[in-house]
Design goal:
The complex is a heterodimer of chains A (about 290) and B (about 625).
Chain A lengths: L4 E6 L14 E4 L3 E3 L2 E3 L7 H11 L3 E3 L4 H11 L5 E6 L6 H13 L6 E5 L5 H16 L5 H13 L1 E6 L4 H5 L17 E7 L8 E6 L2 H18 L7 E6 L4 H12 L6 E3 L4 H7 L4 E6 L1
Parallel strand pairs in A: 1-2, 1-6, 6-7, 11-12
Antiparallel strand pairs in A: 3-4, 3-5, 8-9, 8-13, 9-10, 11-13
Helix pairs in contact in A: 1-9, 4-5, 7-8
Chain B lengths: L6 E2 L11 E3 H17 L1 H7 L9 H17 L5 E2 L1 H15 L2 H18 L6 H18 L8 H18 L3 H22 L1 H6 L4 H18 L10 H16 L2 H4 L4 H6 L9 H15 L10 H15 L7 E8 L6 H8 L3 E9 L2 E8 L2 H9 L3 E9 H9 L8 E9 L2 H9 L4 E4 L7 H10 L2 E8 L5 H10 L3 E5 L4 H10 L6 H11 L4 E7 L4 E3 L2 E3 L4 E5 L2 E6 L2 H12 L5 E6 L10 H7 L4 E6 L7 E5 L1
Classes of the chains: A alpha/beta (about 290), B alpha+beta (about 625).
Chain lengths: ~290, ~625
């Protein structure tokens, strides 16, 4: 009989819960603060709600680390019914606190239930792609040991590449999530950067990988970056792509969708933006994550 | 072999390793061997005098490993038998091999893999594999010579065969073989006179031993290091000694150079020839008894000159040329040899299926590519200027490269300089009104401390100077033949340092003309050109090197230009030049006339034109 594995992640996947086809999964919700007030994603308080507030009220938003007790509560609830727990966490290079929380929980349960923490080295739909990749692994090899899952998950992480188009980097900058793309803030000339989180660079931080003056230019370049990465990795097909769009820029996103739609891909997902992602992406942003 | 590699056992028969290997783990081991080789790269480079003293044996061997390693990363999730892995890896080594040493070592590895393809790792079969490796390398080399890597390979075959009778552990045999091979390496100057004259052992042979040491380290975690003085330092010592011995005899004892030469620590000089000559020079100086003539003086001077000349040898075939050809129209290596063999020497051709990896020293790389290209597709080409490599090799002025690739832009306007820096140019030479000198260009390029540089200038008049500067500087420079600042902006927008240098250069070239633009200037006299009469002090717009509109009123001219060139664009950018620096902004009128377009205005600082206007 196959072992039972419960998966925990959070609501920063560029996916809705319905888009993850795995029953034994629970998503923690990141606390989001708009002004002094805390919100969690729900029917009303979602990405669209925050983006409208950004546009209409010039609010400042930020997010906080996952709450350890909420993670512990899930583990407590499921530990007797499952053989193992796998947690897919946002990149520790972007938020070390989230990974530390996950590690603390793992240590708490040592000897009680094995917990494998997967550092996705990604944010937004990059985390989503890593989560889906890990779930593919679990489904296709239901009896993997914790060590094997940890090892094979690293391959998933190293082959996940996400490209972000943020028309206004200030949202990212204010949230302290800008990494090496900081050099692009306050440029003399208005540019639209392409920021990458590349699973194979081992750092798990955002790096500038391209730029354009118009969305047409950045879309063209983004497709070239994808093709170059495929060539570098000798991949003839993309396993999975997720295009997540944060409203506005409809023409540019439609154009990119058409362009990447022509690439060989087994699973092309139109992602769902979430509240905590909107905090850093801001209006008009879109991002494309691919797994090779 | 007794390795610590993790393997997923499937089926084991006597002497056969029919078990799948963890590709990722083996890749890691090979990466460690590569790292070890890389740490000895400079040592190998400094030994490189045969067949051409271009100082790149270490680099070529390292790059050969790197190329194969990169190709194997794509297979990390695959499961394969050890023999299959070796076959794949050595095939990738061949396809990625660089320089004579890289190709010969890859041939050896291919020969080993051909035998081990059956996954029989018994001692007898390992010995057969090594023997086949040597045969494959020897047969594949045009004019094989003793005293080279090939000799070391043959000796390895023989000593392995001898020791394996006494010691059953193949890993131990490799370990035990190394000291013997080092003795053989020390004898290579006796076999190849050019090595003796240069005072070095064979660089390829040394590379072969270092790779074996790397393998040994991976198997048993040990090894030893090599250090030596740079060739430039050795040549300086040689020159200084000659200078000293040519002085008036009465000055020799007083010269500050005398203690310098007599006190040199021999143990620091790994070049045996120079060590020997210096010992003779010291004898000459120390035995001077006040007579007019120093006994043995002429002999020492002549030895030093001979050695200096050897390192400064005349390279007749300048370009080390390599390519990979995919050709169904060619049936054998011999057929390809017939086609291109007459272009040069050091020709090595290896093939795998319809792929041919070729190495040749020639003065006509373009002709080689053109001739070979007629029979199939050239999927990889590389040309190294060996004269330049040699000059850098023997030069004192050594650059410690700090990065792999950099971008240098050369522009007239300070505004463009700021914009381009912002766009990721590593340095910008802003030359104002006076075009940069060759010397300025060389300093800028060398100052980047980058192995590869992409250089682009905003004026075609600078190209000649830039090309000359490139011939003098240390880095490999890729010149983007741009002739205006807008095309450099287009280039910067289109390239990413995520790409390798060849792809970066390709992207730079293909993006160069991707932005439509025009120049606006004011006429200083009455002109008739391109069907237009432009009166003195009128404004005119130039697009694609032709005057397209002329107006007395600047604002009207700009409106008409935008009207004409905007189709397909969403963003219009105006770059002010020095002549219009204090003009009022054109943005209000343009925004009013073209509400559907986005406009931006920046200071470009160009001296020739009032404005550049770009349409994106």
């Amino acid at each position: 009989m196959s072992q039972k594995i419960f998966v925990i992640s959070a609501d920063n996947l560029g996916l809705s819960r319905d888009q993850v086809d795995y029953p034994d999964l629970e998503l923690l919700r990141f606390p989001v603060f708009v002004g002094d007030k805390e919100y969690r994603q729900d029917e009303v308080h979602n990405a669209k709600w925050l983006l409208q507030k950004y546009a209409n009220e010039q609010v400042v938003a930020k997010s906080s680390t996952l709450v350890k007790q909420e993670m512990v509560d899930i583990v407590e609830r499921v530990r007797s019914s499952y053989d193992m727990i796998v947690q897919v966490v946002m990149g520790s290079g972007m938020s070390s606190a989230s990974f530390v929380v996950a590690e603390n929980v793992r240590k708490m349960y040592e000897g009680i239930i094995p917990i494998v923490n997967v550092d996705s080295s990604q944010v937004i739909n990059g985390v989503g792609n890593v989560l889906l990749g890990v779930i593919d692994l679990i489904k296709s090899n239901p009896n993997l040991s914790p060590e094997e899952i940890a090892q094979k998950s690293k391959d998933v992480v190293q082959n996940t590449f996400t490209y972000f188009i943020f028309p206004d980097l200030n949202y990212l900058y204010r949230g302290g999530r800008i990494g090496k793309a900081k050099s692009l803030v306050g440029t003399i000339m208005k540019i639209i950067p392409i920021i990458g989180m590349l699973g194979d660079n081992g750092e798990g931080v955002m790096v500038p990988v391209g730029k354009g003056r118009t969305f047409k230019q950045v879309n063209t370049q983004l497709v070239e970056l994808i093709k170059a990465k495929m060539a570098e990795k000798s991949a003839s097909t993309i396993k999975r792509m997720n295009l997540t769009h944060f409203g506005g820029n409809d023409e540019a996103v439609a154009e990119l969708k058409e362009m990447v739609g022509k690439l060989p891909c087994n699973d092309f997902i139109i992602g769902t933006p979430n509240l905590v992602e909107a905090v850093y992406a801001g209006p008009g942003a879109y991002c494309l994550s691919m797994s090779l | 072999m007794d390795t610590e590699l993790k393997i997923n056992e499937v089926e084991v028969k006597p002497h056969e390793l029919k078990v799948s290997v963890n590709v990722k783990e083996i890749n890691k081991r090979i990466e460690n061997i590569h790292r070890y080789l890389n740490s000895h790269k400079e040592y190998l480079n400094r030994l490189n005098v045969f067949p051409v003293p271009d100082g790149d044996t270490g680099l070529n061997l390292t790059l050969t490993f790197q190329g194969a390693m990169a190709s194997m990363q794509g297979m990390e999730n695959e499961s394969m038998l050890p023999g299959e892995y070796l076959k794949n890896f050595t095939e990738q080594m061949l396809l990625n091999s660089r320089g004579c040493s890289g190709v010969i070592f890859s041939l050896f590895a291919q020969g080993v893999a051909q035998v081990l393809e059956n996954n029989d790792f018994s001692n007898e079969n390992l010995h057969r594999a090594i023997a086949n490796g040597f045969k494959n390398a020897w047969d594949g080399t045009e004019n094989p010579r003793e005293g080279t890597m090939l000799t070391l390979m043959r000796e390895f075959r023989d000593i392995f065969g001898k020791y394996i009778q006494e010691e059953k552990n193949a890993a131990m045999v490799i370990s035990k073989s190394i000291p013997y091979l080092m003795e053989v390496l020390d004898r290579t100057p006796e076999m190849l006179p050019v090595l003796k004259q240069a005072g070095v052992v064979d660089s390829g042979g040394a590379g072969f031993i270092i790779i074996l040491q790397g393998i040994d380290r991976e198997l048993k975690h040990n090894g030893s290091g090599f250090n030596s003085l740079s060739i430039a330092t050795l040549l300086n010592i040689s020159r200084t000694t000659r200078k000293l011995l040519r002085m008036r005899k009465s000055h020799v004892r007083k010269s500050s150079l005398t203690p310098l030469i007599t006190n040199i620590d021999d143990s620091k000089i790994h070049n045996s020839r120079l060590r020997e000559i210096l010992q003779n020079a010291r004898k000459v100086i120390n035995t001077w008894n006040g007579s007019r003539k120093l006994p043995g003086q002429e002999k020492v001077i002549s030895d030093l000159e001979e050695m200096g000349n050897l390192w400064d040898s005349d390279i007749k075939l300048k370009y080390c040329t390599e390519f990979v050809l995919e050709a169904n129209a060619i049936n054998s290596k011999e057929e390809l040899r017939e086609i291109i063999g007459h272009y040069g020497d050091s020709l090595i051709i290896v093939n795998s299926g319809n792929r041919y990896k070729v190495h040749i020293h020639t003065n006509k790389p373009d002709a080689v590519f053109a001739d070979a290209g007629r029979y199939g597709e050239l999927v990889f080409t590389k040309v190294d200027d060996m004269k330049k490599q040699h000059r850098n090799f023997v030069s004192d002025d050594v650059i410690e490269y700090e990065r792999d690739k950099s971008i240098l832009c050369i522009v007239s306007g300070s505004g463009f300089a700021d914009i381009l820096k912002n766009f990721g140019a590593d340095d910008v030479l802003c030359y104002g009104k006076n075009k940069p000198s060759v010397n300025q260009l060389v300093k800028k390029i060398d100052g980047l401390k980058a192995k590869n540089v992409i250089a682009a200038a905003d004026d075609s008049d600078i190209l000649m100077a830039l090309k000359y500067a490139v011939s003098l500087c240390k880095s490999n420079v890729y010149i983007v033949e741009s002739n205006n600042p807008i095309s450099i902006i287009a280039m910067m927008l289109g390239i990413s340092k995520e790409f390798d240098i060849a792809t970066m250069f390709e992207s730079a070239m293909s993006n160069l003309n991707s932005i439509t633009y025009c120049e606006i200037a004011r006429s200083v006299r009455n002109v008739e050109a391109d069907g237009f009469t432009v009166k003195k002090r009128d404004f005119f717009a130039v697009h694609n090197k032709k005057i397209i509109i002329s107006r007395t009123n600047l604002e009207q001219l700009v409106v008409d230009v935008v009207e004409r060139l905007n189709p397909g664009a969403s963003l219009v950018t105006i770059y002010k030049g020095i002549p219009s620096r204090s003009d009022r902004s054109l943005l209000p009128i343009l925004r009013e006339k073209f509400p559907n377009l986005e406009f931006e205005e920046y200071y470009g600082g160009q001296s020739k034109f009032n404005y550049y206007i770009s349409f994106e």
